[in-house]
Amino acid sequence: PVLVVDFGAQYAQLIARRVREAKVYSEIVPHTMPVAEMLAKNPAAIILSGGPASVYAPGAPQVDAGMFTAGVPVFGICYGFQAMAQALGGTVAHTGNREYGGTPLQARPEAGVLLKDLPADLPVWMSHGDCVTEAPAGFTVTAESAGAPVAAFEDLVGRRAGVQFHPEVGHTAHGQEMLTRFLYEIAGIEPTWTPENIIDEQVARIREQVGEKEVICGLSGGVDSAVAAALVHKAVGDQLTCVFVDHGLLRAGEAEQVEKDYVAATGIKLKVVDARDRFLGALAGVTDPEQKRKIIGREFIRVFEAAAREIAAHGDVEFLVQGTLYPDVVESGGGTGTANIKSHHNVGGLPEDLKFALVEPLRALFKDEVRTLGLQLGLPEEMVWRHPFPGPGLAIRIIGAVDEERLALLRKADLIARQELTAAGLDRDVWQFPVVLLADVRSVGVQGDGRSYGHPVVLRPVSSEDAMTADWSRLPYDVIARISTRITNEVAEVNRVVLDVTSKPPGTIEWE
Ligand code: XMP
């Protein structure tokens, strides 16, 4: 892999993605990892990220000079550039010339490889207080800016380069080209991280891990579990059985999509458990959001466990597939304690006595890569591009107690919102579009010359990168208007549609 050494940058994940966009596999490692451990991973190159510290600050993370004697190509960005310059005997100074944001760069494209053929005047994204004033011996300076006399350097013999600015952000013109040049031309790496290769590699790995054993996978209807299962199926065929629990809290058409489209596309053995009565029974009269979540989580485990035991009765199931993604892996390594805002439920919370080994074929991937794989594996587009949907389903979008009637009503309103969003071609512009029924609220309206006393629904379209923070989507008013008109016309019990204009924080995406 290409290792991205994280010096506390906001951008480490972004760098890793950019490298992958150049079809080169990358992993993020903390700067506290000893160099020997990094080298043990056999890196094709190391990229030192930016970071908040000044190289002169007490306790500032340093670069172990051992990194530069191992013959591994190194690229330094911002803080990583300065730390690299310092470790190799260059000079880093506090000049008092801070540069933040868009900055003009004077490049000498002909002087090296990194900026070759690019314009001499390049707008780049800077964020630094210190700067490199003298490059280490053996390095050619290929760019400068007003606040950075050495803004880019390279040493082709030692296969090392660095830049003061951030090539990974969109505001830097030709940034991706610079990264690519480093990877291909300076480090000599071949672009082999392609969907076809990822699939082949994972299939081989899964076969090796699973052997002749049986495997099960809980499908949520979401893209991660769908792609994970499709990969495992490609690897071990009918040794895999998928379990789909219909808890009655799904949206219109969802169970059918899994039962028909998914099976048609993959040929996977699917066990659908109709647990609608059981869930609705357990939820009857419950209004507290946390209690709803706990009940659903508990029932889910029971149902899944029973299904797993039934499958295990005909063979010995030993493996459980999970759709864990790379950001989950990185974040759980970071580990600062966070408050429990909501109890999320996943298939992950299985009881101890069901002892499965985990198969996690997506552990190395970001969401967009998972989507690309899904398409490559032949999954339907609607499935691959589905918006995230919470495990507890519509139960946490009905504010108040959950029952069949309210679910049916919300399903209708939700379907209208989704249809209109799709018709407007905006599916990929929003992260998620919850529709929430305020089942215990009524307001007065006038419909067909008569007084109505119905329920409001809330439209909650949000844009987000990762669901940790979000903003309300500025959908065109005419789209909102169409949704509103259709919902109040077609869903008799609803006489008012309101738009949620709260960001996260302080609001969460879901209402419960
Ligand atoms: P909140 O409401 O916390 O949601 O801003 C963040 C993201 O998580 C989804 N969500 C869940 N997903 N099980 C899930 O699998 C859950 O219990 C759950 N609760 C919320 C939510 O839809 C959003 O994408």
TrEMBL record:
Keyword ATP-binding in record: yes
EC number per UniProt: 6.3.5.2
Catalytic activity of the protein: XMP + L-glutamine + ATP + H2O = GMP + L-glutamate + AMP + diphosphate + 2 H(+)
Active-site residues annotated for this sequence: C78 (nucleophile), H166, E168
Database matches in Gene3D superfamilies: 3.30.300.10, 3.40.50.880, HUPs
Domain GMPS ATP-PPase: 193-386
GO molecular function: ATP binding; GMP synthase activity
Entries under Pfam families matching the protein: GATase, GMP_synt_C, NAD_synthase
Pathway where it operates: Purine metabolism; GMP biosynthesis; GMP from XMP (L-Gln route): step 1/1
CDD domains: GATase1_GMP_Synthase, GMP_synthase_C
Superkingdom of origin: Bacteria
Alphabetized UniProt keyword annotations: ATP-binding, Glutamine amidotransferase, GMP biosynthesis, Ligase, Nucleotide-binding, Purine biosynthesis
Residues reported in the UniProt entry to bind ATP: S220, G221, G222, V223, D224, S225, A226
GO terms under cellular component: cytosol
Function as written in the Swiss-Prot or TrEMBL entry: Catalyzes the synthesis of GMP from XMP.
Quaternary state and interactors: Homodimer.
Official protein name in the record: GMP synthase [glutamine-hydrolyzing]
GN (gene name): guaA
